[in-house]
Amino acid sequence: MARVYVSGIINAPIDKVWAYARDFNGHGEWHPLIAESAIEDGRPSDQVGCIRNFNLTNGGNLREQLLSFSDLDRSFTYNILVSPMPIQNYIATFHCLPVTESDQTFVEWYANFDVSEEHEAQIRHQVGQDTFAAGIKALEAAVSKR
User: Fold this and answer.
1) Phi-psi category of 59—alpha, beta or left, where left has phi over 0 and alpha has psi -120 to 50?
2) I need a surface site. Which of 83, 93, 109, 117 has the fewest CB within 10 A?
3) Cα–Cα nearest to 128, from 143, 144, 114, 108
4) From CA 50, how far away is CA 78, in angstroms rounded?
């Protein structure tokens, strides 16, 4: 099983960051890889079990299901149901914590998944740098505009 872990500091208070990031379907507004996204069956985007169906800017399509959600812990966990990537058993968590001394937000985003040895380096980069790291930077930019 492969594990990818990325973290970063967003220069904004946690309440502001979480208010923006908590929308499981909101990544289309701030993540540079997302072309369009919708929650299937009109369910609320913070309802455990809801499925987001989205297209990437490169044309790929993914479906991800919300497995857990907590405003108290400022985190959510989801899995991939359908992906163009050669992976299986993908489970990821997005989590925000306050940096109390500077009124900033620590964001961690991590995933565990199965991938063949031949694809592992490529998928680790794709998930870690292109998705998680790029997403944290883009989230900071979006929050700062609000």
Assistant:
1) left
2) 117
3) 108
4) 10
Digit-coded pLDDT (tens) for 41-83:
999 999 999 999 999 999 999 999 999 999 999 999 999 999 9
CA atoms within 13 A on the CB side of 74: 18
Residue 41 DSSP label: G
Q: Count of residues for the chain?
A: 146
Strand order in the sheet with 75-82: 2-10, 104-115, 87-99, 75-82, 61-70, 51-56, 34-39
Task: Name the region of 140 (left: φ>0; alpha: ψ -120 to 50; beta: rest).
Answer: alpha
Q: How far apart are CA 13 and CA 52, in angstroms?
A: 27
